[in-house]
Design brief:
Blueprint lengths: L4 E3 L6 H16 L4 E4 H12 L11 E6 L3 H13 L4 E2 L6 E4 L2 E8 L8 E3 L7 E3 L3 H6 L2 E7 L2 E6 L2 H15 L4 H13 L5 H7 L2 H6 L4 H16 L2 H15 L6 H8 L4 H20 L1
Helix pairs in contact: 2-5, 5-6, 5-9, 5-10, 6-11, 9-12, 10-12, 11-12
Length: about 280
């Protein structure tokens, strides 16, 4: 596990503390590890940990739970409902509600098949890739939401979140444009999460190669950080995506989705295309 720790006690609203406290108590009682992923993790890391203002916030919670089987997953769901604080969603079997707050429960770990996919019962027709989840969990950081009562949760690092976002975007294209937007948000802000000091302290050669453009150097460093944590299967999967999205005569689907969420296509297309190329370069290094 990553040793990074953030103390946000006194800064988090009561409902968020209540829902994570209830989730923590039940998951711990069953010995089920979990960490927060998706846009919720993005908001916690960028806004709450680093004070970066975001263009949009989410109220949904995505919780990744490490389980060995659907039996263990269902046991967790039933235990949460038995508290009387969580109600099932009428349409989505993996979604619960805490008051009006939707919570998507996403299983990963041994429950996945050999291709690191899970298929939702009972029909097993809807699938989701969990490539990158294991590495993101193993390198996760600890965030303290409350000191009294004590409440700590795990979040992926930004490189871990970026790995999951790019896989999710590709898997569900063209339905997951927000994953592309979130990946761009991570790229645009990576220099503000301690990377600036790293570039001048230990990565000066990289900074010099980018002619002291901290933004571009930070994106390359993000790519390197993503690759360092990825296992071979994840490495190959993400490399294939980045290769396809930056090759000559590419459709630039990733760049296009990023641009659509950031403003005028004419104003930012070339800039964002360059940023994705720098991400790929760092990832291959």
């Amino acid at each position: 596990m990553n040793s990074t720790f953030f103390d946000l006690s006194g800064k988090i609203d009561p409902q968020t503390i209540a829902v994570f406290s209830a989730l923590r108590n039940v998951a711990d009682s069953l010995g089920i590890p979990f960490f927060v992923v998706g846009a919720t993790a993005r908001d916690f890391i960028l806004k709450d940990c680093y004070g970066i203002e975001l263009p949009r916030m989410t109220r949904d919670i995505d919780l990744a739970v490490e389980v060995a089987s659907w039996e263990q997953f269902n046991k967790l769901i039933e235990a949460l409902k038995d508290t009387g604080k969580f109600s099932p969603d009428k349409r989505e079997c993996h979604r619960l509600h805490f008051d009006s707050l939707p919570i998507d429960m996403l299983p990963f770990g041994p429950i996945a098949d050999a291709d690191r996919k899970i298929t939702w019962p009972p029909e097993h027709e809807v699938f989701m890739s969990v490539i990158g989840f294991k590495e993101a969990y193993e390198s996760s950081i600890t965030v303290r939401l409350s000191a009294n009562p004590l409440l700590d949760i795990k979040l992926p690092t930004l490189p871990g979140l970026a790995l999951m976002k790019i896989v999710s975007w590709k898997e569900k294209y063209p339905e997951r444009r927000k994953d592309a937007e979130d990946l761009l948000l991570i790229m645009d802000n990576y220099e503000s999460v301690g990377t600036f000091d790293r570039l001048y302290d230990t990565e000066q050669e990289l900074l010099q190669e980018e002619k002291f453009d901290v933004g571009l150097a930070s994106i390359r460093l993000l790519g390197r950080d993503m690759a360092r944590m990825a296992d071979p299967e994840t490495l190959n999967r993400v490399k294939a995506i980045l290769d396809d999205e930056t090759r000559e005569k590419s459709r630039y689907s990733l760049v296009t989705d990023m641009v659509r969420g950031s403003g005028s296509i004419e104003d930012r297309f070339e800039q964002i295309r360059l940023h994705v190329e720098k991400l790929r370069k760092g990832f291959l290094e």
